[in-house]
Predict the structure.
Amino acid sequence: MSGIVVGTCSWTDPALVRSGWYPPGQRDAEGRLRYYAERFPVVEVDATYYALPSVRNSALWAERTPPGFRFDVKAFSLLTGHPTPPRALPPDLRSARERPGGARGTDPALLDEVWDRFGQALEPLRRAGRLGTLLFQFPPWCAPGPRWEEFLTRCRERAQGWPVAAEFRHPGWWQEDRAARTAALLTELDMAAVAVDMTQTLPESVPPVTPVTSPRTAVVRFHGRSTAWGRGSKEDRFRYAYGASELAEWVPRIRGMADRAERVHVLFNNCCGDAAVRAAAQMQQLLTVHQE
């Protein structure tokens, strides 16, 4: 399974902790991460979307994981064009005024400061060789066109020198008449495209295409196939248990991606109970069997 690593999109999700997957004696912060890292070689940090990370936490994550382990880190919401309430900012930045218009209208000084703090906080991971990629998950209203192409370009300029992956929630980016242009844009920006598995029955369903736009890294995120996507509670959206046949259909796709990129990160985001860790373990087995 060389070059392909499998994990989940959180190791701290309350539903996972409640599920009993972590054994007694390993349910504190350090124990959970060490236990997880014994079973999977990669994990996504979800909390950094909701609040800026800290240097201390990054250093602890690096300390508690073995060489070769990787963290894919979600970009903070303000950096991806999502609404960001003042309470999500550090206390000394909450009084900064924002003009209407989302990320496009954010006070440039505030945005500069947030970018700086975000990067500084992740330095311990980068220095330790634990940083996988920065995941920029763009909002559903990020539609193909000049405005958002310019936004992507600015994101890449801000993250110069960092490994970056881009996930689109608007299906238009990967529809047949647009996919080649999207792939070309991400290739030019040296941003790894994120392939997505989700239900295909909704207007907002993103096609399960597998573009590879960076020679170093490709990413696949499994969101589950719940039809409550985009309209139910978080638990409704991610409550889904993958079957073996659903996972197996992705094995040749993932192997095809591995032929075009040095590393493929396969991450399960169906974080409801222990569904994600069970699916990740099953995918590891499937990929190993098909390698033999």
The chain is about 35% helix and 15% strand.
